[in-house]
Amino acid sequence: MNTNLLMLWGYWDEIYQRCTRLTYIEKGNNIFRVVPLRYRGETLRTSDERTIHDGDLILKIHIHNYYFATLCRGVQDELRVALLLRRHILQSLPRLAAFLEAMEEREQIKGIVGTTMLHKGVAPLGFSISDVPMNWFFRYKRWYLRLMLRLVHPNGKRRVQTWKHDMPLKRVYMSKELLLARYGQGASTGDTL
């Protein structure tokens, strides 16, 4: 990625951060930013058979795209980018679990929920996956995430053109109980990098 473009993105990211109320889990050392909010959508059933209903309190997770872009700078191999993302998600999940455990609203939070096009390979990490309705909000989000992919991915332009009609936006989610059991204090995931 062009250094000047990355610098401009850094300025934009600071503005975005302030406007969205996103909280860093651990700035510069965690791939997630989060915001507690009420879930809006169809009922979600997690892999451990728990449910997240419309109106439940969740921790909305966002991959910190700018931070990840800085980590990927100079990486040209597509597989290395995917492995780098997986490694950082695995390293970030225990800190996310600790953050949730320390929240005042932890008893009311039902789980973590995010929206992404990078959903392949997340099921073994404990996430469940479902479709999102393609309303105006998710159409905008899909456009935005395609732009991010184009900027971050070593072959982003070609990848976006190739996937023009096949880049499904998915909801990824996990119950609070599963997150804490797998990644909370004293837990061992057994996942390998």
TrEMBL record:
Pfam name, any one: YkoP
- Give the highest taxon in the source lineage: Bacteria
Q: Where is the YkoP-like domain?
A: 5-183
Query: What protein does this entry describe?
Result: YkoP-like domain-containing protein
| Organism of provenance | Brevibacillus agri
- Taxonomic lineage of the native organism: Bacteria, Bacillati, Bacillota, Bacilli, Bacillales
